[in-house]
Amino acid sequence: MIVQAGPCPVPQDQRPLREYQQLLESWFFVWPAGPDGWPLLRALGLSFLLLLPVALVVATGSVPLRHDIPRLVVAAATASVTLPLLLLLRQWMGWTYVRKRLLADQVYYEESGWYDGQVWPKPLPWLQQDQLVARHQIGPVLSRLRLGLTVAGLLLVAGTGLCQAL
Predict the structure, then answer these.
(1) Is the pTM of this model over 0.70?
(2) Cα-flanking dihedrals φ and ψ of residue 110, to 5°?
(3) In degrees to the nearest 10, what's the CA dihedral of 138, 139, 140, 142?
(4) DSSP per residue, 113-158
(5) Other CB atoms within 10 Å distance of the CB of residue 50
(6) Exposure of 32 by Cβ count < 10 A (0-12 exposed, 13-18 middle, 19+ buried)?
(7) Burial 75-85 (b: 16+ CB within 10 A, else e)
(8) Rounded Cα–Cα distance for residues 95 and 90 (Å)
């Protein structure tokens, strides 16, 4: 890897601040970035409610569950939590990747040709701006996602345990 200084050779789409702006423009990644987090809760609740009837239909295919209605409902509700959990996990990975790139003091970038694997040190003003964005814009988003992942994981574990206990 070659470290370059001077004018920014990093392509516009590979700059960390631009990657952050692209996340904010994405319909999927903007859910947890709202001021209050309600878009995230609405989207996850909607996906849960849409998956619940499908999971109930699939769970009725099991002969033991078909004759045990409480266990059938718990199994379907537990299965309905998996897609929202996976959506939260994908959002977590996207936001943590951009946060890591914003907090780094160098920008790693790829471009075809002899630019592959280049490193460019961020100038101090860029580094300060990126760190402010990472701490004050992405930090609350990651807190909401962490809470959502914790709740979804606990619901999945509790539902699985309850299904086994019934």
Answers:
(1) yes
(2) -125, 140
(3) 80
(4) GGGTTEEEEPPHHHHHHHHHHIIIIIHHHHHHHHHHHHHHHHHHHH
(5) 12
(6) buried
(7) bbbbbbbebbb
(8) 9
Which parts of the chain register pLDDT below 70? 1-6, 37, 39-40, 112-116
β partners of residue 120: 107
Q: Could you tell me which of 25, 2, 22, 4 has the C-alpha nearest to residue 13?
A: 22
| Residue 87 CB contacts under 8 Å (≥ 6 apart), including other chains | 43, 44, 47
What is the rounded distance in angstroms from the CA atom of residue 52 to the CA atom of residue 47?
Answer: 9
- In sequence order, which residues have a C-beta less than 8 Å from that of residue 74 and are 6 or more positions away? 159, 162, 163, 166
Tokens standing for residue 152: 């979804």
**How is residue 14 annotated by DSSP?**
G
**For residue 71, what are its two tokens?**
């266990």
